[in-house]
């Protein structure tokens, strides 16, 4: 049995009941096999893979808070500090009822490679809670965030671990979390990113992940003598990543015709009117269904199936495992040429393979959505300098980072005779930097 297979079996045996974590590890180890095989003895002697798949630390804690009826509620809180070889742990906080240790370990593991690809000095981590912010009052969200941070603040810091937002954690939540950190620790420092502009946030952070997805898509298309101009695009989700992916794709000449939320999807043959989506989602916190009531010619379909809409480019920007093999087969049959993951692991493993086998050019989330964490790292730099950069400066840096990521993953794939396999390219290029740093730092 190969070293990568051995380590995968060990991960499954030692981490029971964590299917998402197994899935993420399997994908990475499978693509690293070509790298490991060239130097197996060295990596084995240092137990590099065993160390890579084991988080440095997992903090798990109780989050008690009082709801508007005066009832005491209790949620679970976590922070997975996965790997700090190349910098302080960095990765988002997710507040969603599905959050558990498996999901956070999968996200933390992916984050290690993603952060490495940005070229910036950030390690990998992830955290969150099974708290559901949907339908909660502002006061309840604040009470929850304050309780969550009262515990988490013992383990994080500007040079230790710098969380950011993720699903269910936007500007409002980051504000409440930052306020409580400052109050308890008495430190005004860049301990969280995604902050408001009046208290240390970076311009372009809100747009960064979605913009980055489209910047790297643009590089991929250029490399294949193609462009976004005139292309039909489907974007899944209607949250932070989706909205700004739609905005940038539209600016670059594409027509985005569909978006969704977890209830259903909208189709607008005239091209999505993003002002309406922003009003529904960012202002009213409503459902995507309302779009069809407000925009003439648009339709709403309840349930899943957004992949049935014909497109050239499909950008899954909602959640993990949202796109399966049947979805990909439909996309292929309808002539889709590109899938670029805005969300983390939105495509199942079989669906990813099916897409690549059918000639779809596929960019994995850990490369394609790295613009978010990269801009978070730029926010950390600005906080350390006590300076703020202009939108143009941050956007230019983000753009360059995405261009560089494309070059790195494309080059890594070519070096191993895997041209156009960007899944392997991203895993290999991310791995090379982290492992070099781990080896240099000894057995820690
Ligand atoms: P948001 O919470 O802002 O938006 C998530 C969107 O996805 C919502 O529209 C949500 O709909 C929809 N959604 C959730 N589950 C499903 C489902 N099963 N089917 C269809 N739609 C669904 O999150 P973000 O935009 O911030 O994050 C989206 C993804 O991108 C996540 O995987 C996240 O980890 C990843 N990511 C985010 C980054 C960021 O900077 N924000 C950075 C890198 C990655 P509903 O409102 O109904 O729940």
TrEMBL record:
Binding residues for NAD(+): 209, 240
Domain Glutamate/phenylalanine/leucine/valine/L-tryptophan dehydrogenase C-terminal: from-to ranges: 202-442
One GO cellular component term: cytosol
Site positions (Important for catalysis): 166
Record bears the keyword Transmembrane helix: no
Lineage, broadest ranks: Bacteria, Bacillati, Bacillota, Clostridia, Lachnospirales
Quaternary state and interactors: Homohexamer.
Protein name: Glutamate dehydrogenase
Catalytic residues, chain numbering: 126 (proton donor)
UniProt binding sites for substrate: 90, 111, 114, 165, 376
Entries under SMART domains matching the protein: ELFV_dehydrog
Homology family: Belongs to the Glu/Leu/Phe/Val dehydrogenases family.
Pfam families, per the entry: ELFV_dehydrog, ELFV_dehydrog_N
GO molecular function ontology, one term from the record: nucleotide binding
Record's keyword terms, sorted: NAD, Nucleotide-binding, Oxidoreductase
GO BP, sorted A to Z: glutamate biosynthetic process
């Amino acid at each position: 049995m190969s070293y990568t297979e051995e380590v995968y079996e060990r991960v499954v045996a030692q981490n029971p009941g964590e299917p998402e974590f197994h899935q993420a590890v399997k994908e990475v180890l499978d693509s690293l096999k070509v790298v490991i095989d060239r130097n197996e003895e060295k990596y084995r002697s240092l137990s590099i893979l065993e160390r890579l798949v084991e988080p440095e630390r997992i903090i798990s804690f109780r989050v008690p808070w009082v709801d508007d009826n005066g009832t005491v509620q209790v949620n679970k809180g976590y922070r997975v500090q996965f790997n700090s070889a190349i910098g302080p742990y960095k990765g988002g906080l997710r507040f969603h009822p599905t959050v558990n240790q498996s999901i956070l370990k999968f996200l933390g593991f992916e984050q290690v490679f993603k952060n490495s690809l940005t070229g910036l000095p950030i390690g990998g981590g992830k955290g969150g809670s099974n708290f559901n912010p949907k339908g909660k009052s502002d006061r309840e969200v604040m009470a929850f965030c304050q309780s969550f941070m009262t515990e988490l603040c013992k383990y994080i810091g500007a040079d230790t671990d710098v969380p950011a937002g993720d699903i269910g954690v936007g500007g409002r939540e980051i504000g409440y979390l930052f306020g409580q950190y400052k109050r308890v620790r008495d430190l005004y420092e860049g301990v969280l990113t995604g902050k408001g502009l009046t208290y240390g946030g970076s311009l372009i952070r809100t747009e960064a992940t979605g913009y980055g997805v489209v910047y790297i898509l643009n590089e991929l298309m250029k490399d294949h003598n193609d462009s976004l101009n005139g292309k039909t695009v489907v974007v899944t989700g209607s949250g932070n990543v989706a909205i700004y992916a739609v905005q940038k794709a539209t600016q670059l000449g594409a027509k985005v015709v569909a978006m969704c939320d977890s209830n259903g999807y909208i189709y607008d043959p005239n091209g999505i009117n993003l002002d309406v989506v922003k009003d529904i989602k960012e202002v009213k916190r409503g459902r995507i269904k309302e779009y069809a009531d407000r925009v003439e010619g648009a339709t709403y379909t309840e349930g899943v199936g957004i992949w049935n809409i014909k497109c050239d480019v499909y950008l899954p920007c909602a959640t993990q495992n949202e796109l399966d093999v049947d979805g990909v087969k439909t996309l292929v049959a309808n002539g889709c040429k590109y899938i670029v993951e805005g969300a983390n692991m939105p495509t199942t493993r079989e669906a990813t393979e099916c897409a690549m086998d059918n000639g779809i050019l596929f960019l994995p989330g850990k490369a394609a959505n790295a613009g978010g964490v990269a801009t978070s790292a730029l926010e950390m730099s600005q906080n350390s300098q006590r300076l703020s950069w202009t939108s143009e400066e941050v956007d230019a840096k983000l753009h360059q980072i995405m261009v560089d990521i494309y070059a790195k993953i494309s080059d890594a794939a070519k070096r191993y005779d895997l041209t156009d396999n960007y899944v392997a390219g991203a895993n290999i290029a991310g791995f090379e930097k982290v492992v070099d740093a781990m080896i240099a730092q000894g057995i820690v």
